[in-house]
Design a protein that fits this description.
This protein is of the alpha+beta class and 88 residues long. The chain has two helices and two strands. The protein has one domain (3-84). A two-stranded antiparallel sheet has the order 1-2. β1 (32-37) and β2 (45-50) form a beta hairpin. α1 runs antiparallel to α2. The chain is rod-shaped and about 90 Å long.
């Protein structure tokens, strides 16, 4: 395998692992707020605000990058093995 391909594979793998670790660390952090708006003589409103949790998106992206890198590595290895065989 060429040196550049190995370096690319390890860089993509490291990025994926760091993304997974960052997602797991931030998994439980949620921000939300509930406010009651109203007065003694008027209608009362309840305002609910929350933050969308993007952790599954980050995890999926990291896993897809890792899977793409692994697939590219396997395909390259198979292609190299086919071309290295002696012709009959």
């Amino acid at each position: 395998m060429k040196k550049g391909t190995k370096i690319l594979f390890w860089v993509l793998s490291a990025c994926s692992v760091l993304g997974i670790i960052a997602s797991v660390i931030g998994w439980r952090k949620k921000a939300s707020a509930i406010s009651i708006i109203g007065g003694a003589d008027g209608p009362t409103s309840i305002f609910i605000a929350g933050k969308i949790n993007y952790t599954p998106v980050y995890l999926l992206t990291a896993l897809l990058i890792l899977a793409a890198a692994a697939t590219a590595l396997v395909i390259r290895k198979q292609h190299r093995n086919k071309t290295d065989r002696p012709q009959k």
